[in-house]
Amino acid sequence: MKTQLDALNANINQKLEAATSQIEDATRRLEEVERKAAGAETWDLAVRDTLLDLINNQRDLQSKMSDLEGRSRLNKIRTYGIAVKTEGTSTAAFIESFILNELRESIGIQRGADLGIERAH
After folding, report:
1. Which residues form a coiled coil (predicted)?
2. What is the pTM of this model?
3. What's the chain's Rg over C-alpha atoms?
C-alpha cells in the first residue's frame, strides 16, 4: 500500500510540476503580449499625433493655395515711374489712355479696343 501511495504521490507531483511549468510559460507569453500591446499603444499615439499635424499642415497649405489661385485669376498691371498726380481726376481713364497710346503696339492691342478696366488706383 505504501508503494502505491508513493507512486500516486510521485504521479501527482509530476502532474503538478507539468501544470506549474505550463502556467509559468503562459505567464511569460502573457507578459510579452502586454509589453507588445503597450508598445503598440505608444506607436498608435505617435502616429495619431503625426497625422493630426499633417492634416493641419494640409489644411493650411490648401488655404494658401486657394488664396494664391484667387489672386492669380485677377489680371493686374502695375505701372512704375509715373509721377504722382499725373493721372488727373480719373485714374482708370488715365491708365486706359496710357495703355492705348504708349503700349498698344508692343502688346498687340487694336486701336479703339475696350480694355475693360474695372478699377485703377
Report:
1. 2-71
2. 0.40
3. 43
